[in-house]
Amino acid sequence: MIGFVGIGFGGCRLGRGSRSRVCVSASAGDGVTVVVGATGRTGKLVVKKLLSDGGSGKVRALVRDEAKAREVLGTNERLEVSVVDVKEKDERLETSLADAETLISCLGSTAIPSKDWEGGKNSPIRAVGLGMGNVIESLSPGKIKKVVVLSAVATRNRSFIFKLVDLIGGAWTAMEMAEDAVIAGAAEKGYEYVVVHAPVLKDEGSPVQGVGIKLGDVGKSIGPVWLR
């Protein structure tokens, strides 16, 4: 499965070259699944889902703050916590990814400057764009099988308002950099990938009314996808 996914109901798309429905699911299987951005609002939910799937595979959370990770993620015999900074391509990052069979990236940033940016050290371009590039470069060819990356709507087709917001801090530019790194890495290292174009994610439920889904084309030679 290679391509883009637009978040609609069920997180499904049409499989390229077929009419079968293919859904994005979180399952650790028997190998090692690495989650980057594991202590973020979405990342922590992904980790908890992986740990509750009943599988036997290891789930490795890549974090900058081990104490925060233990507080947010808790403990589990299948959970490993590796302290690395994806903005730095070093031996620790390569070691943490050496045996990864599945990579799930929940790297993200606010669209406008905030305290999370740490004065520019953790800006979207550095944390998401360059960070994802470092992660992909550190994956082991022949070992890595699947990559799932959380991105956002309008990353590839920005309206005027998104272009204006992007000028402030480059949040959408950073996500496009991350997507490009994933796509280039797939060609080089032979893994399958899914890019999830999610809408604004909030820590609250949302009504099912008012959601429109249409068939369209995203990117070059991607094929039909469901867009929200």
Task: Characterize the structure shown.
The protein is an alpha/beta fold and 228 residues long. It has one domain (28-212): Rossmann fold (3-Layer(aba) Sandwich). The chain is 30% helix and 22% strand. It has 6 helices and 11 strands. The chain has helices at residues 43-51, 66-73, 91-97, 124-138, 160-169, 171-189; strands at residues 2-6, 12-14, 21-23, 32-36, 58-63, 79-83, 102-105, 146-150, 192-197, 214-217, 224-227. The strands form 3 sheets. It has a 7-stranded parallel sheet, with helices on both faces. A two-stranded antiparallel sheet has the order 2-3. The protein has a two-stranded antiparallel sheet with strand order 10-11. Helix 4 (124-138) packs parallel to helix 6 (171-189). The longest helix is centred in the C-terminal third of the chain and has 19 residues, at 171-189. The radius of gyration is 17 Å and the shape is globular. It comes from Rhodosorus marinus. Residues 37-206 form the NAD(P)-binding domain. This is NAD(P)-binding domain-containing protein.
CATH superfamily: NAD(P)-binding Rossmann-like Domain
Number of domains: 1
Question: What is the count of β-strands?
Answer: 11
Structural class: alpha/beta
Strand content bin:
15-25%
CATH top level assignment = Alpha Beta
| Alpha carbon gyration radius | 17 Å
